[in-house]
Amino acid sequence: MFDLFFLPLGGASEIGASCFYLNIDGTGILLDCGIHPRKSGFDSLPNFNLLKNHPVDAVFISHAHQDHIGALPYFVKQFPHVKIYSTVQTVEISMVTLNNAAKILKAQLSENNQDLLYTHDELELMLKSVRTFDYEEEISLRGLAHKNQNSISVTFHDAGHILGSSLIEIKYNGRIILYTGDIKLGSQSILKGAAVFGINADLLITESTYGYLEDTLIPNRLDEIKRFTWETNNVLNNGGSVLIPVFGLGKYQEMLSLIYSLMQKCKLVETTIYTGGIGRRISRIYDTNKYLVKRNYENLNLHDIPQENYLEIEDLSHFIRKPGIVLATSGMMIEGTASLRMAKFWLKQKKFAVWIVGYIDPESTGYPISAANKGDKIVVQNGTPVKVNCDVKKFHFPSHSSKTELLNFIDDLKPSKIILIHGDYESKDKFGYEILSRFPKVKLYNAENSNSISLNV
Ligand SMILES: [Zn+2]
Ligand SMILES: [Zn+2]
To answer: Using CA atoms, how far apart are residues 155 and 298, in angstroms rounded to an integer?
Structure first.
């Protein structure tokens, strides 16, 4: 048994700026260090001021999405002595994504703007603080002010969410804390789902992203693939092109492998696949790690899938002459991106279609497009209203666990205490209600940013 001090600096009731402080007998640990994707500059950071009177010895990063790692380069500048731990794949991906984010940030901000969180050079410096580990490898930790002879043991387990993603298991004095990060328990197209076997947890700190979504409304994956195939074939057979706005990390690789495998099985019409941007560079990392992580399509190199680079196409009427499927970043069609530029062209084309396959923030530029139906008039980027001539449809290919998946996971882990994080209030309310209905003996905590929780583990 031991006393735990838990303090969320960000990401407690939102998807953004995930950062949780734990103090275990004097050793200070941060779980994740993300930025808020909808905010910019210092506003996007977790509240690091809360660390003023607390020691920090180590940061453990669950995965390379910006809402979990984006603030790390800034944090390392303020706390240069702190060691960073993550999986090999997470670090490899984040050097691509953080450098890309630094480039975008610099372009967005005026030259002398103080809000520039970090530079490319500072990213190189950050690497010096980073220690990489494989899944299931044990890390032994004792902070500078550690008050006990026993050290803390930390292990990464495959979380099945994106390449390199992990659940973080913390063992101390015979007790176990498990932090889910972002977790997908079931299989996706490439990734096989989380690999956590035979573990019990005393305290579970769990994401609640899909807590709001009733399982009766979630289509079965195979049915959804059938619907996707049928709808896509309809558009292609009619001479149209399909635009799929995707996040460059995760959803891009999952959709590319799904589309290719459907074509290989002759279920989907053979057509040109257009890709580009950062997604291509991350696909390379999926390829070089294909034997180092458990996955489907073990021998498939995403890079070897025939694809044309959409960034080399200036005149978008090319997609009328040579139709195909376009996987374009960004997933939320934010300003200045290829997917927004193409979506505006797509909206005018009667034979074309936009498929939405991931989460879109209601405040983002792409949201009105994602919510539109054929024939609607919508306003994009504060412009004049435009008529939606193309087809717009949503498909559910989640990279987070459903509520039922998480409830079954809780049943396996048998934690006596659970802290809910990484979900909006509605998600946490609904998920919390179901946890208590099914496991009435569990002590449930609803984390709030800046509010500490002291508990006995
Ligand atoms: Zn994620
Ligand atoms: Zn997340």
So the answer is: 25
Domain ranges of the chain: 3-213+399-456, 219-394
What pLDDT score was predicted for residue 56?
98
Whole-number Å distance, alpha carbon 68 to ligand 1 midpoint, is: 7
Q: Give the lowest-confidence range in 120-124, 169-173, 436-440.
A: 120-124
The CATH number for 219-394, chosen from 1.20.1640.10, 2.70.50.60, 1.10.10.10, 3.40.50.10890, is: 3.40.50.10890
Strands 152-158 vs 166-172: parallel, antiparallel or unpaired: antiparallel
| Rounded distance from Cα 115 to ligand 1 centre (Å) | 25
User: Within 109-170, where are the H helices?
Assistant: 120-127
Ligand lying nearest the CA atom of residue 16 = 2
Model's pTM, two decimal places?
Answer: 0.95
pLDDT at 327 over 90: yes
**Residues 212-235 pLDDT 10s:** 999 888 899 999 999 999 999 999
* Dist. CA 404 → ligand 1 center (Å): 19
Q: Which long-range contacts (CB under 8 A, 24 or more apart) does 17-21 make?
A: 17/44, 17/45, 17/46, 17/67, 17/71, 18/46, 18/67, 18/68, 18/421, 18/422, 19/46, 19/71, 20/179, 20/205, 20/421, 20/447, 21/50, 21/51, 21/54, 21/56
Distance 119 CA to ligand 2 centre (A): 24
Say if residue 108 is exposed, middle or buried (CB neighbours under 10 Å; 0-12, 13-18, 19+). Answer: middle
**pLDDT value of residue 54:** 97
* Helix H or strand E segment including 403: helix 403-413
CA of 400 to the centre of ligand 2 (A): 9
Neighbours of 10 (CB within 10 A): 27
Residues lying with their CB under 5 A of ligand 1, a single-atom ion? 65, 182
Sign for the pseudo-dihedral over CA of 40, 382, 390, 310? negative
- Among all bound ligands, the one having the nearest atom to the CA of 250 is 1
Give the Å distance between the CA of 158 and the centre of ligand 1: 13
**Which stretch of DSSP H or E encloses residue 98?**
helix 88-108
Residue 266 CA, ligand 1 centroid: distance in Å: 32
Band of pLDDT at residue 40, cut at 50, 70 and 90:
confident
For residue 112, what pLDDT band results from cuts at 50, 70 and 90?
Answer: low
pLDDT in tens, 334-383: 888 999 999 999 999 999 999 999 888 888 899 999 999 999 999 998 88
Shortest-distance ligand to the CA of residue 35: 2
Could you name the CATH architecture of 3-213+399-456?
Answer: 4-Layer Sandwich (3.60)
